[in-house]
């Protein structure tokens, strides 16, 4: 692979444990391949807002009561403090939500902001639509690359012909390390770059494993 560095754009919703697993793999990819991750927020609430009557009741409740707050806080942090805070804030939120099992509580959000060196007052935006337009724009930028039938994460990289290669996933647990992370990256780019390739899938037999994060 070329040693010229490649930017991988990564769209996430901090609520999703599977996106969290993939994001930690991408941090490992940065160590073993000439890749720099650029972080963007997307929203499961926005993705599903027109089909709430089609999702299971417990998932709908999560979307309505928990999904808006974290992404709104990320959007506010980005708008008020710059793109460079998105990745560290995602790491702080994900660590508390998933690794520590705190979930997307107001306390976890406030403490994640503090962990990321950001003003705790940003937590107030969890209940405000101040930056919903920017949140939706970021979401639609990512999801438009892969279609509405998928979720988070979305990854996009430059292709060899100048066209962007974009895909949902990969969905993997635990997050691969070292050479295994490199092989998964190489293989994912290989299949995703084939015109007309759409899907490889098998039934998940275990949930997200955060033990090596």
Describe the protein in words.
By secondary structure, the chain is of the alpha+beta class. 45% of the residues lie in helices and 11% in strands. Strands 2-1-3-4 form a 4-stranded mixed beta sheet. The chain is globular and about 45 Å long. The two termini are 27 Å apart. The mean pLDDT is 95.
How would you summarize what this structure contains?
With 213 residues, this protein is of the alpha+beta class. It has helices at residues 17-32, 44-48, 57-65, 68-81, 86-99, 106-115, 132-143, 178-192; strands spanning 6-12, 35-41, 154-158, 164-168. It comes from Streptomyces lavendofoliae.
Primary descriptors:
4 strands, four-stranded mixed beta sheet, 213 residues, Thioredoxin-like_sf, Rv2466c-like, 8 helices, DSBA oxidoreductase
Count the E strands. 4
Strand content: 5-15%
- What can be said about the biggest beta sheet? 4 strands, mixed
Strand order of the largest sheet: 2-1-3-4
Low-confidence spans: none
Shape: globular
**H/E series:** EHEHHHHHHEEH
**Count of DSSP-assigned helices:** 8
* Radius of gyration, in angstroms, nearest whole number: 17 Å
State the helical fraction: 40-55%
Compute the separation of the termini in Å. 27 Å
Mean pLDDT: 95
Based on secondary structure, the structural category is alpha+beta
Protein name: DSBA oxidoreductase
Organism: Streptomyces lavendofoliae
Pfam family, one: Rv2466c-like
InterPro entries: Rv2466c-like (IPR053977), Thioredoxin-like_sf (IPR036249)
